[in-house]
Design goal:
The protein is mostly helical and about 160 residues long. It has nine helices and no strands.
């Protein structure tokens, strides 16, 4: 497989919901690509869908939630976004920006840019604040995944 193909795959994996850069960084590291390049490409790929999600995902999900084939999946996505948004709102109060940043930034399943942006849209956060919080969260999650992929946390566990 050519190096450019590997980079394209990393970029595409970082755009996939639920996988996002949490999967793209270890994937790129496993393919022995330079970690900094993988990090940058994963961040860009993960952030690319954010404006589309913010402005259109909620409308599309509401439209499709009662359709025969896609209804269950769309309802699941809406419920996940609403649940995540309400949980953020309850815990954060006025610190919603920081809560969204940490929600996206701590790399747990289902807490990435897609869910965070959908939650921000459902909570009617303004676009600039939402994108800034999600971007900082993606950068944080990328650093954490970079360290995990490099084995830093495993090495610390062996020391302590």
């Amino acid at each position: 497989m050519s190096e450019i193909t590997k980079y394209i795959l990393v970029f595409l994996v970082s755009m996939v919901p639920l996988v996002e850069l949490r999967g793209a960084i270890p994937f790129g590291v496993k393919m022995e690509l330079p970690v900094l390049n993988v990090y940058i490409l994963s961040v860009v790929g993960n952030m690319l869908p954010v404006p589309v999600i913010f402005f259109f995902a909620r409308k599309v999900l509401l439209w499709g939630k009662d359709k025969p084939v896609i209804g269950k999946f769309f309802t699941f996505c809406l419920e996940k976004g609403e649940k995540g948004g309400r949980r953020l709102e309850e815990k954060a109060g006025r610190g919603l920006f920081v809560a969204l940043l940490l929600f996206v930034g701590i790399p747990l399943p289902g807490t990435g840019a897609w869910t965070g942006t959908l939650a921000a849209s459902i909570l009617d956060m303004d676009f600039k604040s939402s994108v800034a919080a999600v971007m900082l969260g993606v950068l944080l999650a990328g650093v954490i995944m970079w360290l995990v992929s490099a084995g830093v946390f495993g090495a610390l566990g062996m020391i302590f």
